[in-house]
Amino acid sequence: MCGRYNIIPNATWPREFSLSAGSAARIDTIKPNYNVCPSADVPIVRYDPGSRQMELSLAYWGLVPFWSKQRSIAYRMINARAESVAENPAYRESFRWRRCVIPANGFFEWKRSTGSGPKQPYLFTLQAGTVFGFAGLWDCWKDPGDDGSLVSCTIMTTRANSLMQDIHDRMPVILARGNYSKWLDPVFRDPGVLLRPCSSKRMCVSAVSTHVNNPRNNDTRCIQLLEGQGIHG
């Protein structure tokens, strides 16, 4: 699964995600988040068929399908499994028509300690240290009580690669940069072929401070690497 990640916006985003000029100008309004938790408003990249450009917007992390009667379903919908997304009623419409790319710099996973101490967090990143994009889905839910609306999203997951397997059997889908436009294009008929584990050779992992275990903590200590704990794919 993917239950926490981090975002550090920078000037490479417009080039990395082929953003429109208007979206590029909004990057400065997005603050770094070193411990992104479910229910946070997170940046997503979507294709706008009107302008035919990639647009950056915010979405609530935890998908609320348009047909849902209540918003609370979001807490169970932070991830969507690649193996069943095309048939799952909660995701299939979004999978067909409303795909997005979710920028990230790294994601966290926890390994249970052998003793009675807290779980040890690990930070997974690309070896190049660059921003990357999760495969995501979005939807727009209208509140029947007050006519308000909510744009929400979920992160696709798949089986773990060899670097991840010792810590967890699932991992988020990290799209190759060259596949962003395919994933975002609703005309592309076979998006499922893109939902593969990222190669371990592209990634590295390191144990980080247990400071990140507390979802209220959001500072650089959350991504502080423990010396001598790094592993490359």
CATH topology: hypothetical protein yedk fold
Q: Mean pLDDT, rounded to whole units? A: 93
CATH fourth-tier homologous superfamily: SOS response associated peptidase-like
Number of strands: 14
Biggest β-sheet strands, sense, barrel: 8 strands, mixed
N- to C-terminal distance: 19 Å
In percent, how helical is the residue content? Answer: under 10%
Tell me the radius of gyration.
17 Å
Unreliable spans: none
**Count the helices. How many?**
4
SSE order: EHHEEEEHEEEEEEEHEE
Structural domain tally: 1
What is the annotated CATH architecture? Alpha-Beta Complex
In short:
The protein is mainly beta and 233 residues long. It has 4 helices and 14 strands. The relative contact order is 0.19.
Task: Give structural notes.
The chain is mainly β. It has one domain: hypothetical protein yedk fold. 9% of the residues lie in helices and 34% in strands. Strands 3, 4, 5, 6, 9, 10, 11 and 12 form an eight-stranded mixed sheet that branches. The longest helix is centred in the first third of the chain and has 6 residues, at 21-26. The relative contact order is 0.19. The mean pLDDT is 93.
Keywords:
6-stranded antiparallel β-sheet, 233 residues, mainly beta, hypothetical protein yedk fold, 4 helices, 9% helix
Question: What is the topology?
Answer:
Elements: E1 5-7, H1 13-16, H2 21-26, E2 33-36, E3 41-48, E4 53-61, E5 79-81, H3 92-97, E6 99-104, E7 106-111, E8 120-126, E9 132-142, E10 149-159, E11 170-172, E12 174-175, H4 180-184, E13 203-207, E14 231-232
Parallel strand pairs: 4-10, 5-10
Antiparallel strand pairs: 1-2, 1-7, 3-4, 6-9, 7-8, 8-13, 9-10, 9-12, 10-11, 13-14
